[in-house]
């Protein structure tokens, strides 16, 4: 683990003062495939925490909306601080403290994109500065491998929970794996990070006769249909299936 740039807890404002908060802080990781409600849950946790008078900071990286926010497909969205691989999360929190703000908890969406070092920084904020961290992210990438951030969260989190809302494969079985679809075809090679949605591009859905050659989307599949590469009927909108 990297050495800490932060000073002793007595420089931390009230929220980081262990004597006022005897209960230990926690690093909790909620994970699942795309579309299982992770961002919705992130906003719900934030809502419930802030209702208790606690002060949180929302963090994300590469939200589908293209904006620095946590956005849920249910329709909720909230502004968030955009991270990149070079962000030291401890310094980000220290700057809040320096500006006189309390930081009781962090909500981290798209946590699969964190580096291992950033997960370690989050763990330090929990252990040394009593900041609760709630992280939300994908379990596996389009090749069925753990993302690096996810792996480190599995290794370090106090509590790891699979999000309970089931995403269904087109066959009706629980979908666990994220297929990447480019131009209508499932691909198994490419960059690990390609930000895109599960919905087909609107123009493809309208035409219902294929997808643009460069259009990228993701589709959640059960293990059998992932390994067979079978995408099933093409989704054209809520409750509609068109034959491919
Ligand atoms: N119109 C809708 N009505 C109710 N629930 C919806 C609607 N649209 C999306 N959802 C729910 O939102 C879920 C996706 O939530 P979201 O937080 O965006 O997922 P994730 O962050 O895991 O990708 C879907 O699985 C579905 O349960
Ligand atoms: C599987 C997979 C996904 N991504 C991207 C696609 C989306 O922008 C996000 C996940 O968003 P969600 O809130 O969970 O729906 O991750 C990626 O870059 N690489 C992948 O392999």
Tags for this entry?
244 residues, alpha/beta, Rossmann fold, 6-stranded parallel beta sheet, 3-stranded antiparallel beta sheet, 6 helices, 15 strands, elongated, disordered C terminus, binds the ligand Cc1cn([C@H]2C[C@H](O)[C@@H](COP(=O)(O)O)O2)c(=O)[nH]c1=O
Describe the structure.
Its EC number is 2.7.1.21. InterPro entries: P-loop_NTPase, Thymidine_kinase. This protein is of the alpha/beta class. It folds into 2 domains: 154 residues, P-loop containing nucleotide triphosphate hydrolases (Rossmann fold); 76 residues, no CATH class. The chain has 6 helices and 15 strands. The strands form 5 sheets. A 6-stranded parallel sheet has the order 5-2-6-7-1-8, sandwiched between helices. A 3-stranded antiparallel sheet has the order 12-11-13. It has a two-stranded antiparallel sheet with strand order 3-4. Helix 3 packs parallel to helix 4. The longest helix is centred in the first third of the chain and has 14 residues. The protein is elongated and about 55 Å long. The C terminus is likely disordered.
């Amino acid at each position: 683990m990297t050495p800490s740039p932060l000073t002793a807890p007595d420089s931390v404002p009230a929220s980081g003062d262990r004597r006022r908060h005897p209960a230990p802080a926690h690093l909790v990781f909620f994970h699942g495939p795309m579309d299982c409600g992770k961002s919705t849950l992130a906003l719900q946790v934030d809502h419930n925490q802030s209702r208790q008078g606690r002060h949180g900071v929302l963090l994300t990286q590469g939200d589908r909306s293209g904006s620095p926010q946590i956005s849920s497909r249910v329709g909720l969205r909230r502004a968030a601080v955009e991270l990149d691989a070079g962000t030291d999360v401890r310094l980000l929190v220290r700057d809040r403290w320096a500006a006189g703000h309390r930081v009781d908890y962090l909500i981290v969406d798209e946590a699969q994109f964190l580096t291992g070092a950033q997960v370690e920084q989050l763990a330090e904020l929990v252990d040394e500065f009593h900041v609760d961290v709630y992280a939300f992210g994908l379990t596996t990438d389009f090749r069925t491998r753990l993302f690096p951030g996810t792996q480190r969260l599995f290794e370090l989190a106090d509590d790891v929970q699979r999000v309970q809302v089931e995403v269904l494969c087109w066959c009706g079985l629980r979908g666990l794996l994220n297929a990447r679809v480019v131009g209508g075809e499932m691909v198994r090679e490419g960059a690990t990070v390609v930000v895109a949605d599960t919905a087909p591009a609107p123009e493809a859905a309208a035409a219902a006769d294929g997808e643009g050659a460069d259009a990228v989307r993701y589709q959640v599949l059960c293990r059998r249909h992932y390994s067979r590469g079978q995408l099933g009927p093409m989704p054209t909108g809520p409750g509609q299936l068109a034959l491919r």
